[in-house]
Design a protein that fits this description.
Layout (H helix, E strand, L loop, with lengths): L1 E4 L2 E4 L20 H4 L3 E2 L2 E2 L25 H15 L14 E3 L4 E6 L2 H6 L4 E7 L4 H6 L4 E8 L4 E8 L7 H9 L16
Antiparallel strand pairs: 1-2, 3-4, 5-6, 6-9, 7-8, 8-9
């Protein structure tokens, strides 16, 4: 098969091809038109508290704009119900939603990429760690992989990108660090000692 990529035209050979075209919201037959609920591009339009344009009608999950992930829908539902019950809560922070790809090797990320940080003109520092230096990875025979962390000028973790065995199980801590920020007075990246 011939494809057109960033490097120009290429010839690819494969035994199987997976084509993932996304999902379509299943909102037909719910009576949205009769109620007058606004729908935009196959999604129910909502505000930051998941209210629709119709009083008393709320929507969360795969039928509203945003990532179609179960943990996102749960967070949206919690915030929505807390808002309905007049309990103060922070809106869902979509910038710290973890993303996991269960392939071999696994891929996991949260927060900004370098490209996104550059586009937003956010000054950042990169910290890298190779699995080649990990005793656990060596013992498991899984030394292929790395961790890349992005920190802003205030030393807050703004992005984490991991590739390797079991990295999807390691993403909770970077996601929490992206959400909560640094401990004061401590550098998030230690410099390695130099040999003389």
């Amino acid at each position: 098969m011939r494809i057109e990529g960033k490097k120009g035209e290429e010839e690819l050979t494969a035994d199987k091809v997976l084509s993932a075209v996304g999902i379509k919201s299943n909102i037909e037959g719910l009576g949205l038109e009769e109620l007058g609920v606004r729908v935009e591009r196959d999604k129910i339009a909502v505000d930051e508290h998941y209210r629709t344009n119709v009083e008393g009608v709320y929507a969360v999950g795969d039928i509203v704009p945003g990532p179609a992930l179960a943990h996102v829908a749960s967070a949206e539902a919690l915030h929505c119900v807390e808002h309905i019950c007049d309990v103060e809560s922070d809106p869902v922070d979509y910038s710290v939603i973890p993303s996991c790809v269960f392939t071999s090797p696994e891929v996991a990320s949260v927060g900004l990429t370098e490209r996104e940080a550059l586009a937003r003109e956010i000054p950042y520092t990169v910290g890298r760690y190779s699995f080649m230096a990990s005793g656990k990875a060596a013992a498991a025979g899984e030394r292929d992989g790395f961790v890349k962390l992005l920190f802003d000028a205030d030393r807050k973790l703004i992005g984490a990108h991991l590739v390797g065995a079991s990295v999807t199980e390691m993403l909770a801590e970077p996601a929490l660090a992206c959400r909560l920020g640094p401990r004061r007075g401590r550098s998030p990246v230690r410099s390695m000692p130099t040999r003389r």
